[in-house]
Amino acid sequence: MNNLIPEVSAWYKDVANGSLFEVVAYDEQSGTVEYQHVDGEVGEYDTGSWQELSLIPAEPPEDWRSPYEVNSEDDSYSDHAIVPENWSGALSDIEPDSLDFGDDFQVL
Q: In the predicted model, is pLDDT for residue 108 greater than 90?
C-alpha cells in the first residue's frame, strides 16, 4: 500500500511488476488516475487501486518520447520566416490579353 498522491507529469515505478509509467491526468472528484506507459499504452486506476499499488517515484526514462515519435530535431525551431516570392499567387502570372470571355465581357 502506498501513500503517494498522484501528480500529473510525474513518473512512477510499480515495484511488483517493474513497469514504469507517467501520470497524465488525475481527477480528484471522480477518483481516477490516468497513466501512460513508456510504450504508449494508456490506462486508468481508481483511487482504491492506486493506493494498493507498490509504487516508488521514478525518473523519466531516456527514451520516453519514442512512442510519441518525437525526436531532437522536433525541439529545434527555426527563426527563418517563409516569405513567398509572389504574394498574388499564380493567377497574377496570367496575361489578361490571353483571356477570352466572349462578347459579354471586356478585359480592361
A: no
